[in-house]
Amino acid sequence: MMNKDTVHIQHELDIVQARQKGREISKKIAFGTVDQVRITTAISELARNIYLYAGSGDISIEEIHDGNKKGIKISAVDQGPGIADIRKVLEDGYSTSGGLGAGVPGVKRLMDDFSIDSAVGKGTAITAVKWLK
Amino acid sequence: MRIPILKLNDMLLVSIQVVLDDQSALMLKEDLLQKIHVTGAGGVVLDLTSLDIIDSFIAKVLGDMVSMAELMGAKVVITGIQPAVAITLIELGISLPNIMTALDLEKGIELLRNAVIDDE
Ligand SMILES: Nc1ncnc2c1ncn2[C@@H]1O[C@H](COP(=O)(O)OP(=O)(O)OP(=O)(O)O)[C@@H](O)[C@H]1O
Ligand SMILES: [Mg+2]
Q1: I need a surface site. Which of A88, A106, B21, B84 has the fewest CB within 10 A?
Q2: At A30, which helix (H) or strand (E)?
Q3: Known InterPro entries for this protein (chain B) (predicted)?
Q4: Cα(A6)–Cα(A106) distance, integer angstroms
Q5: B91 contacts in A (CB within 8 Å)?
Q6: Is the reported ipTM for this assembly greater than 0.90?
């Protein structure tokens, strides 16, 4: 059984939509309560970043398998301005919008695997995976 | 969606019962400050029992709300943060320093009563 869903992020309320999808799918995969909150919070951070910095983009949430491991993969893809200094964005407290700067480093901590691919003027793709233990 | 703010003696009670989107959070902040101003309330209990996540944006709005209310002379107690939400907040790297918290609404009201009385 595969679950894959994409939520297009363009309006602020799409962030809530993405969050609810993430909650639904992580529940279906049978993640525990704390992991469900971790996953949903990570999605919220990534969706808001798309909305704030790129204007629009997509959040995809899917169930993945690796041998007999099961997990959830979140992909956040946009064609926004991109990130010039990825190392800075990974630091706690770095924000260009007066935010707490907790989003990106927070997602990295909340999830098991994390990667950023970004090019200035082209866009950003962030992938984060959580494995069911 | 507008979140109702109830008045109980010299206290304001807010219990968030809806899915909290960004606009609703910002509106609550403004409504609450306005209500503190109009009623002269000395304390606010903000119950988050039904909040299923707190991300960095909501955390910032909550933190700002508490600092602004205190600037106006009202003490705020946050109650009912779910265990999974508390764990996630800390892992996100967010602590809500200097914010009074209590387990539930009842304990929050009690804590606030004591804090306001201590001040008088
Ligand atoms: N999708 C994106 N496209 C372009 N820039 C981005 C994107 N996501 C994040 N950034 C940049 O990285 C910085 C850090 O992001 P992060 O989410 O960690 O913090 P924040 O959004 O500024 O604040 P917070 O998430 O705590 O409210 C942002 O301020 C922004 O400059
Ligand atoms: Mg962010």
Answers
A1: A88
A2: none
A3: Bact_StressResp_Reg, STAS_dom, STAS_dom_sf
A4: 22
A5: 38, 106, 109-110
A6: yes
